[in-house]
Fold this sequence. Notes:
19 strands, 7-stranded mixed beta sheet
Amino acid sequence: MPHKIAIGLDFGSDSVRALAVDCQNGEELAASITYYPRWKKGLFCNPILNQFRQHPLDFMESLTEVVCSVVKQLGGVAKNIVAIGIDATGSSPAPLDRHGQILALRPDFSENPNAMFILWKDHTAIEEAEEINRLCQKPAYSVFLKGCGGVYSSEWFWSKILHSFRNDEAVKKATVSWVECSDWIPALLTGTTLPHIIKRNRCAAGHKCLWNEQWGGLPSYEFFKDLDPVLVEELPYPLFKETYTADMAVGKLTKEWAEKLGLNENVTVSGGAIDSHVGAIGAGVKPYSLVKVIGTSTCDMLTAENEQVKGRFIKGICGQVNGSIVPGYIGFEAGQSAFGDIFAWFQRFLGWPLQFYARNNFTHLQEFYEIEHDLLNNLAEEWYKNKNLEYLPIAVDWFNGRRTPYANQRLKGTITGLTLATDAVAVFGSLIVSTACGARAIIECFVEQDIPINTIIAIGGIAKKSSIIMQTCADIMKREIKVSDSEQCCALGGAILGAVAAKVYSSVLEAQHHMSSPISKIYKPDLHLSEQYERIYGQYQQWARVSERQYV
Length: 552
């Protein structure tokens, strides 16, 4: 009997990845990646204003391209595809009209950034997030922040909606609901985009939308009215009631999408979820194993048994939700707002002279590109083989604000301890160390609140490509770090969820046993270096405290 195949779709910040997986043994059969064309051109984004928007056509066109590519690679066995599982960045909401259409898909809103998906990294709603935090200082509303670690973020659902409504009257009047990207794509493929029938996933609803079982769903009508009456006058209350774990089926492919993708209409589409949560599933997350998705930013996922949590809310993280990540367990999320983005900034910073001269030296363009491409690897290698930790500058990794512990998007990155002897290599070393220190602070946030971390698993581009960064993290954390073998853990996790939704397996844990990624490498801490880094970590904490007071 031919093996059943599931496709995982991973909608990241700049691209969508598709992965076809054999449900019986987890073999990765075909893969494809497509970069969003409008995003690649920088359309609808303004980094100076922290505005990052994505047009829904980017998702639709890229989705079609990657799935068709995978189907073509599979050839005749593509007929064995039984399911599609989906993840997407979060919180990335967009406004819906009464017909279930994202506003930007209408001619009258096609060029309006406020009518598009507001990407997770968009920080235009800082003031609105602070309003939510101030309102929740009232005793009647204080409980609503407990499920998201005690601080609401400008990266999340309600702050973005409020900012959009306040700044765009046309969008406000045309909108009847808002939808997370991770909910909209499954709804799009199954023809269930009408606002009142969209299935909302537990991950996004619980970690980004203030939904929690303990207070019966979303916050009260009075809470939203006191925050801003527009939230109950222009939108229905409650915006939604029920949420669904990502292993549940949303439906089957519509005839239109089946034909477009070269599949049949019997393919099951699972519920959506946040990309990093699904990546943890692909990496084989178990209770008390911290899975770190290390890329442009980091997202850290941890699951625990109800008996360990005992009804408590863990402070300073990005939320805890019963049934998020893996159904049946408490799911926790934390992370750093910038990781690889910090290194990319330094590359742009140092690369400016190359770019300047490249504009006027066309015959040497290829040489310039090669130098720029190798710049970070060369810096890392030079620092690591000649590192002098005694004179290392101290950097704080808040270049894009702070996500955990205790979200604060007003914070900025700092580099201190510079002298006339400090060179580019030392500064880059300080940036590597700062990101590792930020990662350790997250671990301590959990452990200090009696949530143990027994294992660390790393996935993502940096985890696979930079042994220097990973070894430095292990040394500073004083813990082993296991690196997942799969290049596409998020898409693999989507395939696992699809397999469960299609009833190939009865649970996520059972499907993980057959399909999740093995470990390819283990980084063990160098205890001698760990002792030296202990002093640096103390300095990092000291400068973090000093720096934070400057941005109140």
